[in-house]
Amino acid sequence: MNTKLSVPIAVAVVTISFFCLSGCDRMSHEPTVSASQPSNPPPGVESVPNPDLSMSVEDAYAAIPHRRTEMNFATSKLSEADRSYLAVAFSVIDQSIRLRVTAYRTFSESPDANLISEMDRMIVFMQKVEPPARLSAYHELLISALRDQRAFFAEWQSAGPQFQYGSPGTIASHPKVQSASQALSHAYQILMNEYSGEDSHNQDAFFDYHCALDFL
Question: Is residue 144 one of the residues assigned to a domain?
Fold first, then answer.
C-alpha cells in the first residue's frame, strides 16, 4: 500500500509514522450488523466549515505530499446513516488537512491566531455531529486527533521563536503530535474493521484521509 512520499519541501513532515507503521494492516472480518441510527442525523457536507485559505484541498495533499483517494459512496455498501456521517467526517478531515498544512507553513514564519480559531471552529462543529452508534469510538478518536493538533499549534504560538518542535527533524517527538498520530491510526483501524467489505478504492480512501491528516 502506498505511504507518504519522503520528498522534503517547505511543509514536509516526518515520514516515519506510527500511522504508516502500525495502522495499515487490512482486517479480514466481515462488517457487523448495522447498529442503531443516530437520533439526530448528521448535517450535510455543505455545513462543514470551509476556512478562507488560499490553499485548496488538492494543493494541501500535494504539498505534504500525499496521494488523495476520495471515498466513492456510489459504490459503497455502507448504510445510509453511515454514509451520511462519513461524508461529513471525511470533509472535516480534508478541511483540517488544509488548515494543518497552511498552519505549518505560516507558523514557520510567524504564528497566526486566526488559524487556531479555525481549528477551534472545526472541532466545535464535529462535537455537534452525532455519529451512528457503531462509529462513536471513531468519532471520539477523530475529535481527539483534531484537539491534539490544535494543541500543538497553540503551544507553538505561545512559545514563538523558542518553540523546539517546528522542524521536520523535531516534530515527531512532540507528545501531541504522537498522540494525534495514534488516534488517527486507531480511527483508521475501526473503519477497516467495520467496513472490510468495501472495495479496494474505498479502503485506500480510508487510509489516505487519515494518513494525510497525520503529521507523521
Answer: yes
31 domain-assigned: no
Decide: 32 and 166 in contact? Cβ < 8 Å. no
Domain region containing 104: 56-67+78-213
Interval 145-168: pLDDT, tens: 999 999 999 999 999 999 999 998
Name the domain count of the chain. Answer: 1
Residue with C-alpha cell 471520539?
140
495514534: which residue's cell? 182
Cα separation, 152 vs 61, whole angstroms: 20
Answer positive or negative: Cα dihedral of 112, 114, 118, 124.
Answer: positive
With a cut of 70, say whether residue 39 has pLDDT above it: no
Whether residue 207 lies inside any domain: the answer is yes
Q: What predicted TM-score, i.e. pTM, was given to this entire model?
A: 0.82
